[in-house]
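Encode chain A's predicted structure.
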Amino acid sequence: MTLVHVVVPEGIDNPERPSGGNVYDRWVCRGLAALGWTVHERSIPGRWPRADGAELAGLAEALDAVPNGGLVLLDGLIASAAPEAMSASADRLRLVVLVHMPLGAAAVMERASEARDRERHALSCAEAVIATSSWTRDWLLENYALPDDSVGVVEPGVDSARIAPGTATGGQLVCVAAVTPAKGHDILLSALAMVRDLAWECVCVGSLDLDPEFVAYLEGQARRTGIADRIRFTGPLTGVQLDGAYSSADALVLPSRAETYGMVITEALARGLPVIATSVGGVGEAVGATSDGVRPGLLVPPGQPAAYGAALRCWLVDEDRRRRLREAARQRRRTLISWDQTAKRLSRRLADVTRSDDPAARRIASPRRYRPADRGASR
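Encoded structure for chain A:
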């Protein structure tokens, strides 16, 4: 193997800000090292992807420190927001971008058009792009007109875990997601209010400080609909505490408005927990199906509280349906990939890039200095 410089946002190990992207990045660094790669991790401070001039300059300085011909794997949260640094380094470095969530696909992101222009330009400066789901790959190819062979997929792995025992009534629900509008907690609370005549409790695990106004709104919503005593917001949990939240649950609820994969889905399935989620992005890909085509959960259209409430009612009142979904989840559990497999697949992708003698010979497009007026055609 060889040396790889891995560029990640500062704080990926911060237990107060857990995210799927941070978990993926950490496992990748460990996994590549275990496979014989020399991993130089470069943690870049900044409010990525909304970095300011000084923070962008810090990234440029970090890339400047990499020797000519060096292989650099960049988290897409950084790379996609920094076309200036990417284009300045493209002629001398082997740049590979790991895209968890395309910035241009973030439905609630401000100035989305500008974000797409910058991201498209940044990705065109790379030799390869690695998406963490097939949905993400398809979105990038469709919106940025990247060559098909330049974008690969390396799905997240999952830790092995014991099967959650579940309860007879199926009423213990867990939602694992940062409490922001994108994750749809307001939809969840509206749906839960529609089934308040049934027995259930819901634990919401996730950061509470990303959007305090939204959290306050949810608290008021729970009081107004008479379900406040059945909802508990724990804040972020990791390790044994997070495992305990899963182990005590009957099902994972995830009413996201946007999701490129949903690593919490495979975390739940690893414990044999069915999933009640919205059919957005790569969620269906993560949920998957058994060998005979049975989906281990219920998927409903996004942004529709009534549809979500109907799915919850179906889960709570239909014992036979719960039994079938639990069995499907336990079967799906056996087909989930491990983090070791993820690292091996990523290792092969990186090895392919290193086989080229000239970084410029394999880059996706001929890079130019990014200017705000740049506008490339997308299909």
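The chain is about 40% helix and 15% strand.
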